[in-house]
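Quick start: what a row looks like.
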Amino acid sequence: MAVATNATMLERDGSAAKRPIAGRFVSDWLLDLAALAQSRSSVPRGRYIVLWQTADGVRAFVKRGRKIKALDGIDGRLDTAADWTRLSAILASLKMKKLPVAVRLADDQVLAKTLTFPSAVQDVLEPVITNQLRRLMPWPQAETQFAFKTGPHSGAPDMITVSIVAVRRRALDSIVTGAAKAGIDLQCIDHDAAPDASDAFVLMSASGKNIVKRASVIGWLLGCLMLVSLSVGAIGYLEWLHVRQSDQGLSAQILGLKKRLAQHEQHLSAGAAAMELRQRLVERRLQEPAAVQIIDALTHAIPDHTFLTGLELEGRRLVMRGLSGDAASLIHVLERSGTFQHVRFTGPTTRDHSSGKERFMIAADISFRKHTPHRKRIGASSQEALR
């Protein structure tokens, strides 16, 4: 089962969307370089303390590897700065204040959802989940921190099951602030139903901040090295130019400058052709529909009595397979959405005896036009449409 979180993305991005493409490339490269020296595990190494928040209050454990032992004398809740200060004093009395700490959230502190998607969307799973959370979360998307696990679907081999745990970021910030003020070495915040679980949903980890700090140091060192290199190169070039001017005559210098000018003109001509080719490729790519756009359009167009079992995309031609309570009405519904044109059946509809629905196969041409489609309320039945 794969485990992922949007914490890394949030640590990296920040205002990255406002930076040029080259700036984002350099930033991601530095972060990847810094991550090579970072442990892949989100939980602390060696011996550490697990603060398991339950409905009855906090329970503390000391964990090392798979061994776990309960700590007596730690109870109550961690809602205020005074609670964290009291916890710090207890840990100091037990000579454990220097141990790293992992906070495990209770079930009533997070929002858990289980969704089902076609396995074909695994390459774009994170934006699909973000789009779904925008509709499911009771708070703004910018304040959402989430982690998810993926696994196979028990009933359909071409589907995957995604378990999602989300929490409002202000809840995590209050824990981070309280631990920092109390001098507690907070390493991660996660969620699981048991204190000894090793595959918890990691919602926030100190490793991301450490990677960002290390990347900043590496960037600063590389910048200094580049500045020194440029300075040395500039000095060397000036010395070489002085010697060259002393040894050669004016006619030789003019001839050399003409050759260099001709080379630059060739480079500019080649660069203009490359830029024109790149522009054509970009325009062609923008005209092709993305998988996320297609799934979003199908989510709003397909009625509640219909769900899909397969999608095939060849250029701008989309083939849909699925089951429907009224397959004949899908032609009009899909064409009315404005996204699909020339909708037609590619085979006869048959009755599925197990579900009582009609099994169909429909082909359509995709045409994303500038319009505002009718957006219906997404409920549990619309989740069925994505299955």
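That is the whole record. Confidence is low (pLDDT under 50) at residues 7-18, 370-387. The first strand starts at residue 2 and ends at 5.
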